[in-house]
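Please review this one:
***
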Amino acid sequence: MYEKGERVTLNSILMKVTSELDLTFSRSSLRKILLQNGFRYRKVNNRKLLMERPYVRAARARYLREMRRIRNTEPDRAVIYLDETWFSQFDFDQKGWLDDREFCGRRSVVGKGKRLIIVHAGSRDGFVGDALLTTWTDGKSTDYHDSMNAQHFEEWFSSLLQNIPANSVIVMDNASYHSRIKNKTPTTSNKKGEIQAWLEENGISYADDMLKVELLELVHKHAPPKTYYVDELAKEKGHTVVRLAPYSCDLNPIEMIWAQLKTYVRQRNRSGSMGAIKLLVEEAVAHIPPSAWAKCCDHVEVLEERYWQHENVAEEVERVVVTLGSSDSEDEDTEDE
């Protein structure tokens, strides 16, 4: 029904059950069956829908498998989590003691002002030393990722590699500036001569009378696995990059650290001064102790195990068995569920 774009309520499900499964029972019995099997009538969480797409589940399974392998076979390796976030210039703590007429309180500011882009990394031992990067942007872009590019990120990443333990595991997401391809293959935007040159460089034979589309088929057939600049930079220094699956920010403990950092800055942001905010961010980094990082990392490891168990259970369940029982004692629910 969801795949067809139909509205899914008790009444619409009951009609389907009656017409297509040839079963007859009351609306309250159907409601009881749905509740027994873990369904609830609630607002759709679009993020969860995205997280359950097959390619996302497959990527998450690969990530979980690799992290389980590392934790089980190389428990002494440091796991470094990195990410970027932002803080708006006029992001103030909005709560305070007001009189009945609300004459007392902070003067409202229209707009969020400029944004401070914050890049950092850490592990269960706390923030990595000398790894904080902050830069101001105009705040006009709706996505703060637009304020970062591969060149700036790779420069910061190179310095990060000098400040982390040997043989570290570096966890990051798949932002475009994290993923500049080193061995880029030709695409439809390339000229025919460029595609032929690539084939020759890689020792792949082709006929002179081949069309561009045929040459691209050869490229796709023989294309090597993608390699990324930052992955190679890390490999050269003896580190390993592991990439999070899409929509898996909950598996990065730094997301919870960002929440603590922003709360600290927001509560102390008095005037929206750009210089003051930058200093507050530095204070917040020094204020958040390694114990907070350790708790967040522990939480993520528990979450990884839950995901792993959930995926394996989902694989094993081939059908749902429901027991049709009487629910005469239950009141009819009048909501349009």
Observations:
- The two ends are 15 Å apart (CA to CA).
- The domain at 76-93+108-183+224-314 is CATH 3.30.420.10 (Nucleotidyltransferase; domain 5).
